[in-house]
From TrEMBL:
Protein name as annotated: 2-octaprenyl-6-methoxyphenyl hydroxylase
The keyword Oxidoreductase belongs to this UniProt entry's keyword annotation: yes
Cross-referenced PANTHER family: 2-OCTAPRENYL-6-METHOXYPHENOL HYDROXYLASE, UBIQUINONE BIOSYNTHESIS MONOOXYGENASE COQ6, MITOCHONDRIAL
Organism: Psychrobacter aestuarii
Entry-linked Pfam families: FAD_binding_3
UniProt keyword list: FAD, Flavoprotein, Monooxygenase, Oxidoreductase
Residues annotated as domain FAD-binding: 20-389
Cofactor: FAD
Gene name tied to this protein: ubiH
Pathway(s) served: Cofactor biosynthesis; ubiquinone biosynthesis
Family: Belongs to the UbiH/COQ6 family.
Domain of life of the native organism: Bacteria
Length: 434
């Protein structure tokens, strides 16, 4: 979006009817939430600090790398949500099915496999490059008449105006030259999707409980000589949990029978401070992967650009205050071990959008304190379960004690053999059970 458009939108904003919802932060959660609201016929203005690339549906049919170099495993539930709002057809061409999940530990006997045929599911989820997900979300948001996007807008102030409205003050940056003038936007409700270090959360004085895992995730795309056969391989090493996920071929359509299937997404977790060697030296990175995975994925033959993400868990002490809701990583930033963070955010966004729609349809105030409290309470169980699960996996599988190691390998064997456990775990992983 060009800055001139931003300014026009910003200047026009106070003169037109206020939107129902103000969303701060236009990452994948903020954009998805705006689209969910639009699906329910609700208006929103989304303020994003960064500058979006100037993309159009026709331009750059391959990948336009913009937000980050990561890949996201979308659960079955997330796919269902995108289907519900009519976005899955655009996303699907660059999604790659997960048909099986193989779990094992380096240097140990335990192993378990989840298979889609045994569990009688269509797939366990779909893997998508964030670049493609972000591109399609942005195109859809730009095309919606119910969403006003203002990028280059950094929120600096939040206040409740007392007339059933919440107001934010924001500055605009224009091609690097900062515009120091404070602009104002108002709505009935503010939803903060401004990430782990959320400014809105801080402005509201909501504290967090944080935990530094002392780990860094190295993420990127690799190629193997063996086709991925739609398998997700989760491997636990002394350094931390590692994952190799199936990806589409470079020209997309990972669910098509013609796929070669040699591209895979890698999440390699190393102790904090050791990341440089994996980021800059392709040969070393490939050799390290080979050692950790053995021949499970075949031979690692090429590595693409990689990014490093320091891992911390950040949990907001409250997710609702006045007419404000904290959502996405701003509410709960999790370890990526089980690919649950974004999927959990999508379930939050789906529930809130539905509750707001119901309230609006009945002529109620969408910033009503009881309504927002009900939302916060409704989401607690699912959030707590996912947070506990991620931590149990991280700590349980990296504990060096030989007895703990023996016990967890026994548990993996039991998990693989005992009836009734797999469907339960599979349902949780797919986000189908809260
Ligand atoms: C290595 C790794 C792998 C992962 N893999 C998976 C996976 O496979 N499956 C899964 O479910 N999850 C996964 N996750 C988690 C997932 O990436 C996050 O849950 C998700 O990105 C959260 O998105 P968000 O929009 O809440 O936050 P962000 O992506 O951080 O977006 C926040 C946005 O707010 C903007 N912003 C910040 N401050 C302001 C301000 N003051 N004013 C206006 N805008 C502002 C920022 O510019 C940014 O665009 C992974 C995470 C990591 C680190």
């Amino acid at each position: 979006m060009e800055s001139v458009n931003n300014k026009t939108a910003a200047q026009n904003h106070d003169q037109t009817a206020i939107p129902q919802v103000l969303i701060v932060g236009g990452g994948h959660v903020g954009l998805s939430f705006a689209l969910l609201l639009a699906h329910h016929g609700m208006t929103s203005t989304l303020l994003e600090k960064g500058r979006y690339p100037d993309i159009s549906p026709d331009a750059d049919p391959k990948r336009s790398h913009y937000l980050d170099s990561r890949n996201t495993a979308l659960s079955r539930r997330t796919v269902q949500i995108y289907q519900e709002i009519g976005l899955w057809s655009a996303l699907q061409s660059h999604a790659c099915r997960i048909d099986s999940v193989q779990i094992s530990e380096q240097g140990s006997f335990g192993a378990a496999t989840l298979n889609k045929d045994e569990e009688q599911v269509e797939s366990f989820g779909q893997v998508m490059e964030n670049a493609w997900l972000g591109r399609e979300l942005l195109l859809a948001a730009k095309a919606s008449p119910l969403i006003t996007l203002i990028d280059g807008a950094s929120v600096q102030e939040v206040s409740e105006t007392g007339d059933q409205q919440v107001s934010v003050g924001y500055t605009l940056s224009d091609n690097g030259a900062d515009d120091t003038a404070m602009h104002t936007a108002k709505a009935r409700l503010l939803v903060a999707c401004d990430g782990r270090d959320s400014s809105v959360r801080q402005l509201l004085g909501i504290s967090t409980v944080t935990y530094d895992y002392q780990q860094t995730a190295i993420v990127g795309v690799v190629e193997t000589d063996k086709g991925h056969e739609h398998a997700a391989i989760e491997r636990f090493s002394p350094a931390g949990p590692l994952a190799v996920l199936p990806l589409t071929d470079a020209d997309g359509d990972g669910n098509d029978a013609q796929q070669q299937g040699h591209r895979r997404s890698v999440v390699w977790i190393c102790p904090k401070g050791e990341e440089e060697q994996y980021l800059n030296d392709d040969a070393h990175f490939l050799q390290t992967l080979q050692q950790a995975f053995g021949q499970r994925a075949g031979t690692f033959i090429a590595a693409g650009r990689r990014g490093a993400y320091p891992l911390t868990r950040v949990l907001a002490q409250r997710q609702v205050q006045g007419r404000c809701v904290i959502m996405g990583n701003a509410a709960h930033t999790l370890h990526p071990v089980a690919g649950q963070g974004f999927n959990l955010c999508m379930r939050d966004a789906h529930v809130l959008a539905k509750m707001l729609k119901h309230q609006a349809t009945h002529g109620g105030d969408i910033g009503n304190a009881n309504l927002l409290k009900r939302y916060e309470t409704a989401r607690q169980r699912d959030q707590k379960r996912v947070i506990r699960f991620c931590d149990a996996v991280v700590h349980g599988f990296t504990h060096p004690n030989p007895l703990v190691k023996f016990a967890r390998n026994g548990a993996l064997v039991a998990f693989d053999k005992l009836p009734n456990i797999k469907p339960l775990v599979a349902n949780y992983a797919m986000g189908l059970k809260a």
